[in-house]
Each structure stands twice: as structure tokens, then as C-alpha cells.
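hey m, so remember when u said the C-alpha cells were messed up on ur end? i reran from scratch. heres the input so u can diff it against urs
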Amino acid sequence: MKTDEIRLFVIENFLFGDGQRLSDTTPLLENHIVDSTGVLEIVSFLEQRFGIRVEDDELVPENLNTISSISAYLERKNSPL
């Protein structure tokens, strides 16, 4: 469910509704789908939509470079310690 919302956000905001070339494992940065400003837009979306706080040390490609990695990051943020 979160994965679908993330995918839809990326398609609507960065691909202008054309998500044909986007899979859950498509690298967003390397494929020039998002740039550094786009990453900040994704972070803002995640914080507002899912009620999390993305810390500075979490702004790394391992967390934010694919739809799958963003979804996994959200799961880690929301799971109890």
C-alpha cells in the first residue's frame, strides 16, 4: 500500500503521469528521474503523508534511491524498537 502511494507520487510529480519506465527497483537518481531538489520533495511528502521525521543522516541513497528502498525505509521507521 505504501509502495503504491510512493510510486504514484513519483509518477505524478516527476514523470508527468507516465510511469511506464518506472519499476520498484528503478534507480531514481541515476536515471535522472529526481535530482537533489526532487529528493527533498520526496522527503517532504514522506514526512507529511506518513508522519515521520527524516533525519539528516538518513538522507542517503540506500534509503531514498528506489521505490523499494523508500518503502523499506518507511517500514524500518515505523517498526517498534
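this time it looks ok to me. The radius of gyration is 12 Å. if urs says something different then somethings off w ur setup not the seq
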